């Protein structure tokens, strides 16, 4: 069984549409697939046409309620099985109560992981989890359980903030508990006709390298119509370009393998609480200042960003409010042709 979490703290990036239709594509390709709605808004539940049923039966909230009430959850009672090879666990607003109560539960972030380890769920080839647009306990459960995290990106440079958030959480998972899910990014709601889209894709490719999936999901009114009708795109319009896009994207997800990729993801960070902007520029992004190379300011005054680098030796500096600074946490420096020095990293 492979567990895929679809996650992004940024709303409006088509997260639910991607989760629903990747799950549907996997089922169409012959895999026994379980889709879990882990968002209290229940968007996947609406998109699958189960809004009424979710108010009358057990939901993903009951996965966690068993831990609050100290009673055993009967897992088959959670799962809807009326589609071929595509099963579903719905959600409703009761899931918000789980988010609140999880803070007092020991091992709260690992509950879903433990549940999916039960023999009952081992009959599924894939589990797809639609996460909330935040990094609370529900999303932590989703990411903790995952073997792979797929981050949808719409045509907005705010999407790069979502990238940094996902990597910070996965870095915490790796350091604290040894969980290290693969992370991939998917261009979603993509309008290839605009020059802005081409520029955005180029910046994303430079930042993410092979971790940005090749196949994109184009913007399509048919996807919105399908969700309104409570159907997957394959049920609503299987011959549409949107259906083709999801077949191609899902086929790539099945076959992608980064074990031998000659790249690494590296965090760059600088404490500069008074700064208005901080960029990291180096030979890995041609020393070009752009929004994709700007770090994100955290509440602590730390600026942070994650970038994909080819293995080898790289020069870089921070550009802080248009002033150049070396990395104070990296003692490795080397003179440059301008009479100054650059920070050096090597992998």
List the keywords:
347 residues, 12 helices, 33% helix
Q: What is the gist of this entry?
A:
The chain contains 12 helices and 15 strands.
Written description of the protein model:
This protein is an alpha/beta fold. The protein has 12 helices and 15 strands. The strands form 3 sheets. The chain has a 7-stranded mixed β-sheet with strand order 3-4-2-5-1-6-7, sandwiched between helices. Strand 12 (about 315-320) and strand 13 (about 325) form a beta hairpin. The longest helix has 19 residues, at about 160-175. It is globular, with a radius of gyration of 21 Å. The model has no long low-confidence stretch (mean pLDDT about 90).
Which secondary structure elements does this structure contain, and how are they paired or packed?
Blueprint: E1 2-6, H1 15-28, E2 33-37, H2 43-47, H3 51-54, H4 61-68, E3 80-83, E4 86-89, H5 95-101, H6 111-116, E5 126-130, H7 137-145, E6 148-153, H8 159-177, E7 182-187, H9 195-208, H10 221-228, H11 233-236, H12 241-255, E8 263-271, E9 278-282, E10 296-297, E11 302-310, E12 313-320, E13 323-325, E14 333-335, E15 341-346
Parallel strand pairs: 1-5, 1-6, 2-4, 2-5, 6-7
Antiparallel strand pairs: 3-4, 8-11, 9-12, 10-11, 12-13, 12-15, 14-15
Helix pairs in contact: 1-12, 4-5
